[in-house]
Amino acid sequence: MRWKELTSATELNSLMEESFQHPVAIFKHSTRCSISSMAKARLEREWNIPEEKLPVYYLDLLKYRVVSDAISTTTGVEHESPQLLIIKDGKSVFDASHNAVTAKGVDAFVTT
């Protein structure tokens, strides 16, 4: 699994545009939270979707909280941590938080 770091509102805008060509995933991670660390490790173990089918963006919430707030505003999905979102055509089509953050079922959002 190759993470693409998400660090700015400009990158978020590009990600949203990219979602019109193919879905993208955003993983919002708190580096001080054990539940978030467990969710990240579980994703890394389970993930088997090729990067070109579903790129995964990683957001460090402690460093870039303003970007997390922009994600909530843009998608209408309330902030939680950890959180996994799938964005397609500029909209969140899937979100999970805490122990529900897994790779299971995410492949349903990948176009062939």
In words, what does this structure look like?
Helix content is 30%, strand content 24%. The chain is globular, with a radius of gyration of 13 Å. Strands 1-3-2-4-5 form a 5-stranded mixed β-sheet, with helices on both faces. The chain has helices at 9-18, 34-46, 65-75, and strands spanning 3-5, 24-29, 56-60, 83-88, 91-97. Strand 4 (83-88) and strand 5 form a beta hairpin. By secondary structure, it is of the alpha/beta class. The longest helix is centred in the middle third of the chain and has 13 residues, at 34-46. The protein starts with a strand and ends in a 15-residue tail after the last strand. The model has no long low-confidence stretch (mean pLDDT 92). The chain is built from 3 helices and 5 strands; from the N terminus they run E-H-E-H-E-H-E-E.
The number of strands is: 5
Q: So how many helices?
A: 3
Low-confidence stretches: none
Q: Secondary-structure element order, as H and E?
A: EHEHEHEE
- The gross shape turns out to be globular
Q: Which structural category fits the helices and strands?
A: alpha/beta
Query: N-to-C terminal Cα separation, in Å?
Result: 19 Å
Strand content: 15-25%
Radius of gyration, in Å, reads 13 Å
Lateral strand order in the biggest sheet: 1-3-2-4-5
Mean pLDDT equals 92
Main sheet attributes: strand count, strand direction, barrel closure:
5 strands, mixed
Helix content: 25-40%
